[in-house]
Design a protein that fits this description.
The protein has helices spanning about 10-20, 25-30, 50-65, 70-80, 85-120, and strands at about 40, 45. The protein is mainly alpha-helical. Helix 4 packs antiparallel against helix 5 (about 85-120). The radius of gyration is 21 Å and the shape is elongated.
Length: about 130
């Protein structure tokens, strides 16, 4: 993948500030294969691109779903393997979506119970 000479590059410190991820986490993501290859400066410092930041944002969304690190790494591997992995990627995301929907249902039920109890203590509902 060729990079434009004018493309913005970010140091690991800048990415830490922008994403809230620690430098340790960013290095770990790279080491376990969750991050695609990160370019390096002539002195060996990591230089993240806007595309890297978008990927990290997506990974953050996957983390928020509760997807396992192993599944996130597998997804990243599939992305690197190319378009012929669309079906497997979709299946992985569909399974995760199903799990998220199940948790949302559980949380919605729990919220209804909390609202009911709060209503009782506030005098708005009958026990």
């Amino acid at each position: 993948m060729s990079q434009s000479l004018t493309q913005t590059r970010y140091t690991i410190s800048e990415v830490e500030a922008r994403t809230g991820l620690t430098q340790h986490t960013l290095r770990w993501y790279e080491r376990i294969g969750l991050m695609p290859h990160v370019d390096r400066s002539h002195s060996g410092q990591r230089r993240f691109s806007d595309e890297d930041l978008r990927w990290l944002s997506f990974v953050g969304k996957l983390r928020a779903t509760g997807m396992s690190v192993a599944d996130m790494v597998r997804y990243a591997e599939l992305v690197r393997e190319g378009d012929h992995t669309f079906d497997e990627r979709r299946a992985l995301l569909e399974r995760t979506r199903s799990e998220v929907r199940a948790r949302l249902t559980e949380l919605t039920d729990a919220l209804a119970v909390l609202d009911y109890k709060i209503g009782i203590y506030s005098g708005r509902a009958r026990p």
